[in-house]
Amino acid sequence: MEKIDINKREKAIDLLRSTSDSKLTTHLNACVRCGLCATSCMYYLTFKKAKYIPAKKIDLVSSIYRKYCTTMGRVAPALVNAKVLDEPMAEEMVDSLFGACTMCGRCVKHCSIGVDIPFIVKKGREMLAAMDLVPKTLQSTVDAAITTGNNMGIPTGEFVDTIKWMEEELIDEMQDERARIPLDEMDKDIFYTLNPREPKFFPLSISAMAKIFYAANASWTLSSKYYDVTNYGYFNANMAEATQIARNLYNEVLRLRGKRLVLGECGHGSRANRWEGPNYLKKAYDFETITAVELIERYIRHGSIKLDKSLNKELCTIHDPCNLVRNGGLLEQIRFVVKSSVANFVEMNPYGNDNFCCGGGGGTLAMSEYNDRRLKIGEIKANQIRKSGAKVVITPCHNCVDQLTQLNHTYKLGVQIKTISEVVADALIITKTN
Predict the structure, then answer these.
(1) Cα 339–345–350 angle (5° rounding)?
(2) 60 lies in which domain range?
(3) What is the distance between the alpha carbons of residues 344 and 13, in angstroms, rounded to a whole number?
(4) Mean pLDDT of 87-112
(5) How many CA atoms lie within 13 A of 366 on its CB side?
(6) Is the pTM of this model over 0.85?
(7) Stretch 75-79: mean pLDDT, rounded?
(8) DSSP secondary-structure letter at 290?
(9) How confident is the model at residue 433 (pLDDT cuts 50, 70, 90)?
(10) Is 216 exposed, middle or buried (0-12, 13-18, 19+ CB in 10 A)?
(11) 141 neighbors 238 (Cβ within 8 angstroms)
(12) For 245-352, where are the E strands, in sequence order?
């Protein structure tokens, strides 16, 4: 690692010196190093090395805090395990905080005193971002979102062509010219967002949601410029970049005068826009913000769409995205929608709030440096799927879809991976009155 710039290091340390952040101070001092978090972590369960224990990861940040922000750390650092923020420490932080944590939050549920470990990990990532030490592959994903409006750098013309092609396919399927995928239309009830992986690799997910909107007779639109539900600034922890990405989407909703922002199937995208976005922009949003899962649930409960679950006969299970269930509270909503759409369902063990991450969260899917490690910890999820006996794995997150697809191939699971909109679309009853 190159020598750290002194001024950048000071900026990183200043992030720990704030006396106004009581949550940071509390959690930096709260861990009692009991080790109960160890067996909650996929990395520790897989590799059985102490460096992967969640408490060891946050101690990297805490030890720097003790060195620069406490009297004992300055006077007698060895007594309180206070550490200097130098190149070896920074290198260890990069490997542990970016390369060995999906920020899934499972460790928090197993912590005896509720230390918010992902919060401290994210603060450590913030420090690394201040020193320009974000892994290059993750940073390039953020750069693409900043410069092009989406994290995959899809040109606007290419995106529009894909949408028009999917619209033609949908019109042919529905035999109705009203079965549209509208772009840049004003004053619609719904401003819908996508994960850029959809137009790039999974266009059928777009047509599935469009089919649901058609069946519900919804008033909706996509933007041709700012349609990206993701915000990888949440993962690289560069607050200025995360704020810019959030502001772009916020301003676009206002420009098109959308009444509701509906977040496509993406765990961290839902969290970054619904919960973190107002914090980034330092103001409440002027419109309702909900997830696609919640919208579909409303459609089903209100009778806006009709489903025949017998159209999905295969045994299905749910993979719970960490940021939608454990950290988002949508456990029951997801199950209501899935159970309304499929005839045969089984839970994984464990599931819900105690579910294991797919292994691709925290930005790890974007960091090719850690591909082998990511796929190795994913064996835990692969074994869960195999033991369930399910033939279809449903998850409302395209990041999870990508990781599960790779696990399906690597561990030869022989299952189908589907989003919620896809299974709902497959169960739709389309009547002439639509």
Answers:
(1) 105
(2) 6-133
(3) 53
(4) 96
(5) 28
(6) yes
(7) 95
(8) E
(9) low
(10) buried
(11) no
(12) 260-263, 288-291, 315-318, 344-345
Structure tokens at 208: 């599935």
CB-based burial label for 357 (10 Å; 0-12, 13-18, 19+): buried
Residue 30: pLDDT over 80: yes
Average pLDDT value for residue range 360-364: 96
Where does a domain end: 98, 133, 168? Answer: 133
Residue 169: phi and psi, rounded to 5, are: -65, -40
| Residues 115, 157 within the same domain | no
> Averaged over 372-388, what is the pLDDT?
98
397/358 Cα distance (integer angstroms): 11
pLDDT at residue 316 greater than cutoff 50: yes
User: In this structure, are 236 and 183 located in the same domain?
Assistant: yes
Are residues 192 and 290 located together in one domain of the fold?
A: yes
Structure tokens at 69: 């922000």
Please tell me whether residues 401 and 380 are part of one structural domain: yes
| Tokens encoding 175 | 């035999």
CB 416 within 8 A of CB 391: yes
- State mean pLDDT over 343-348: 98
The two beta strands, 260-263 and 190-192, are parallel
Which pair of structure tokens corresponds to residue 399? 């990041």
Q: Which of 268, 346, 355, 292 shows the shortest CA–CA distance to 319?
A: 355
Q: Are residues 115 and 261 in the same domain?
A: no
Q: Within a 13 Å sphere around the CA of 41, how many CA atoms are in the beta-carbon half? A: 27
pLDDT at residue number 303:
97
The whole-angstrom separation of Cα 39 and Cα 41 is 5
| Count: domains in the chain | 3
Query: Do 142 and 128 lie in a common domain?
Result: no
The whole-angstrom separation of Cα 180 and Cα 167 is 6
pLDDT digits (tens, 9 = 90+) for 180-207: 999 999 999 999 999 999 999 999 999 9
H helices within 282-370, ranges in order?
292-301, 331-341
Judged against a pLDDT cut of 60, whether residue 434 lies above it is answered with: no
Same domain, 41 and 180: no
When the pLDDT of each residue in the chain is averaged and rounded to a whole number, the result is 96
Final residue before a domain boundary, out of 133, 148, 176: 133
Tokens of 306: 């009709």
Whichever domain contains 127, its CATH number is 1.10.1060
